[in-house]
Amino acid sequence: MIIGSLLLLGLFKFPLWNIMLGAPQYPEPLGMDIYISGIQGVSEFDIQNIDGLNHYIGMKTIPKPEDMWEFNTFPTVIGIMVALGVIIGVLGFFRKVNHWWFLGWFGVMSILGILGMYDFNLWLTDYGTNLDPHAIMKITNPDGTPMTYKPPLFGHQKMLNFDVDSWPHTGAYLMFIGMLLTVVAFFVGKRANNYGYAKDKNRPMATAS
Amino acid sequence: MKRLFKSISLLALVAGVFTSCNNSESSNNGDRGALASNVAEKVYVAPGEHDDYYAFISGGYSGNLTVYGLPSGRMFKEIPVFSQFPTSGYGYSEETKPMLNTSHGFIPWDDSHHPDISQTNGKLDGRWVFINGNNTPRIAKIDLKTFETTEIIEVPNSGGNHSSSFVTENTEYVVAGTRFSVPIPQQDISIKEYKGKFKGTLSFISVDPEDGRMAIKFQLLMPGFDYDLGHPGRGKSHGWFFFTTYNTEEAHTLLEVNASQNDKDFIAAINWKAIEEYVNNGGGKMMPAKYAHNVYDEHTHSATSTMMDEVLMVDPTEVPGAVFLLPTPKSPHGVDVDPSGEYIIGNGKLSADLTIHSFDNMINAIENEKFDGDAYGIPIIQFEDVLEGTVTQAGLGPLHTEFDGKGNAYTTFFISSELVKWNLETREVIDRQPNYYSVGHVMIPGGNSREPFGKYAVAMNKITKDRYLPTGPELEHSAQLFDISGEKMELLLDFPTHGEPHYAAGIPADIIKENSQKIYRLEDNKHKYVTPTAGDARVERNGNEVHIYMSMIRSHFTPDNIEGIKVGDKVYFHITNHEQDFDVPHGFAMMGANNAELLIMPGQTKTLFWEPKQVGVWPFYCTDFCSALHQEMQGYIRVSPASSNLELSWSLGE
Q1: B1/A167 CB distance under 8 A
Q2: What is the pLDDT of residues B284-325, one digit of tens each?
Q3: Using an 8 Å Cβ cutoff, are A12 and A36 in contact?
Q4: Cβ contact A136–B629 (<8 Å)
Q5: Residue closest to A20 by CA, chosen among A33, A37, A11
Q6: Nearest CA to B131 among B219, B22, B235, B214?
């Protein structure tokens, strides 16, 4: 439980998500790494170059940390969840709380994760569809509607001359593994209780995982 | 939900692994054993793949240095060095004009000859290429991060800077010798007073190990011969430098006859370490000498020219044991030292033989004072005592020799037009291949170092005739690529070369390609007239001098409408490229400017000078097809009469 929740700290160091944009003119693709605290280019000038290209189709520039409340809130929320997870784990170790608290933490984290994904998708949608009416290039779909440029949440999409790939990154994998470990902790704790070791109030519960 | 996350993330991991495999270095094409007989396959570099070697081929009378790939023979870049280059604005922009400054003033041209790549411990390190300007003696340094000329130093007391620019094992010195002897210091005397009054200098230019900054450490005042080519010692002979001489007759007219009378001329052997020590202990005399030292700074994107006023001159007779003359038959042209440092090969250009001296023999003869008189006080070592052997009847007119690091030497023969491979120990000819036509230098990558890469040899021919589709009387020169990995040499490819290549320098691509810079960082731009953001764009007047601070980014100039310029103004366009993306230069051309264009790299600032002469509204535009809206990247400047009172104004997008 403790290790599982501590793995969430990886989100402060590693990107949560990554979007790469390759094109004939970009054999080395441009890329964005999305951290819980902001968006950075994969290479030093990628953000500037993506913005430069996006101005042709009227997209807004990629937000700075101060432009979006999420980049302040997410680190706080993750920090709180890590602290809660560690506290629950320590209390569980000394048998002050039972294994259902582990699952509870997992449930809250899952809901927060889904909300985060939902919010991320909202931003992608706004970013890709809320275009400057004076854009240099206004391209329409075959049915006559204006073309939009929402990057995919998962996977690959062809957008004009760009191949866009959007996938979770190291931070997200660490988070998934961490969350998985908390579920493992739940089952380990459950088994410990079922086999009756719990009657010995002084025996610590297996909470290291 | 969690399961879904898990499986998706696993898939993503797998996809990531596959992607990174696809992106890895293109596969190695070296192993083609089964197709060895297929010559085309050996020079075929598939679209999108890279050559194995860079070749830096001198541009001769173009004054520049060209960059080729081997084995494909494709040209990648022409680097402007000693000549104005309207393509980029080199020598036309205000920043680069100082690069071509000399003690004779601005010179728009030179004749570039012998590139040599910097070395560490006798191995190519790929930091810089040096090349000599032959006509108005200069040495240039090209930075192999930017592939731009970043320094040029003039060599005083020299005329025809031909026995240059060769580097010592640790790039301690880049060495320059004079082809013409001249009065030193220059003076108004009769040419007939040549003998005894004319002298030749050999210049040792130190190279700072950190930033490569050049400085003339000392010049050696030698007898009035013609110093033709040079080669540093290697390994055991490190610390020595060898120069060929001709015209030891000291003729000053009709040299083709009068300088070909002596049966033997000399190879001058210079113990530069001994002279360095002498100089470090206060030896030598400062003498007045005017020469320009031009340095380009990649942060200010600007060159400065400093006029120097003295140089340290060393009289070789005052440093005993430092300079000797080795008799060598028939006006030797190239002198080449094998990678071990033992054999000193004199290519007597009027002969059919090659003369091979031994370094050990030379040291032995010096220790035992086996001298045969002296020339102006410099001891002449007895020919028989320094000679190791001769390659007899190898061809006609030997010029230059390179090495493959496997015990073989490759000598070019101008008159019999062939490349000859021979064994250094047995001195027997192994193979000969015809050249089309009349080969000058040959280059093996690293062939001028302790560790050659003996895969390819490039012969650079002086005569082209019928090798390509005819292009009127004037033809490009022609190079020929040989595979030298086997016992016999195999001709693989002909390819045209620009200007007149003399020597070339080759290096495995891996040593330098990863260091090649992609952009200049805008935030590091320290140009005096930089426009760091579009908000800083402006126009300033100071009397009739107008400074336009302009920025450019896909696909507009800021500002693009300017009014208030007057006939007779001196207008400076200081233009900063705001791109920070690889390979997105912008050009700038001003209609009616008596000047070239500017080609400005991302993050760089360049300045074009313009004197408007006619009233009207005149366009300017971007010359490099930078983007889909390149044709929209344009602007206007209104030029009013000299008497106009129109205030300066500038704008974008109003």
Answers
A1: no
A2: 999 999 999 999 999 999 999 999 999 999 999 999 999 999
A3: yes
A4: yes
A5: A33
A6: B214
**Based on the domain organization, do B511 and B526 belong to the same domain?**
no
CA-to-CA distance for B65 and B142, rounded, in angstroms? 9
Q: Given an 8 Å threshold on Cβ–Cβ distance, is A180 in contact with B2?
A: yes
Q: Residue B528 — φ and ψ, nearest 5°? A: -60, -30
How many structural domains are present in chain B?
Answer: 2
Residues B449 and B426 in one domain: yes
Find the residue in A nearest to B580 (Cα). A45
Pairing of strands B570-577, A26-35: unpaired
pTM score of the predicted model: 0.90
- In DSSP terms, B407 is beta-bridged to none
The residue among B2, B4, B5, B525 with the most chain A CBs within 10 A of its CB, best to mutate, is B5
Cα nearest neighbour of B6 on chain A: A176
pLDDT in tens, B602-617: 999 999 999 999 999 9
Q: Are B477 and B460 in contact (CB under 8 A)?
A: yes
Report whether B622 contacts B634 (CB < 8 A): yes
Residues in chain A closer than 8 A to B554 (CB atoms): 52
pLDDT at B20: 40
- Identify which of B397, B311, B321, B326 has the alpha carbon closest to the alpha carbon of residue B357: B326
**Tell me, what's the ipTM?**
0.82
| Residue from B118, B117, B153 nearest B137 by CA | B153
Q: List Cα–Cα distances, B370 to B264, B271, B376, in angstroms.
A: 17, 18, 17
Q: Domain containing B615: what range?
A: 522-651
- Distant-in-sequence, close-in-space partners of A148: CB < 8 Å, separation ≥ 6: A128, A129, A131
Residue B5 to residue A56, Cβ atoms within 8 A = no
CATH code (residue B111): 2.130.10.10
**Domain contains A112:** yes
Contacts of B5 in chain A (CB under 8 A): 176
CA A18 from centroid of its chain's CA atoms: 10
- Of B493, B515, B537, the residue that ends a domain is B515
Number of domains in chain A: 1
Residue A149 lies in a domain: yes
Closest CA to B648 of B567, B526, B565, B585: B565
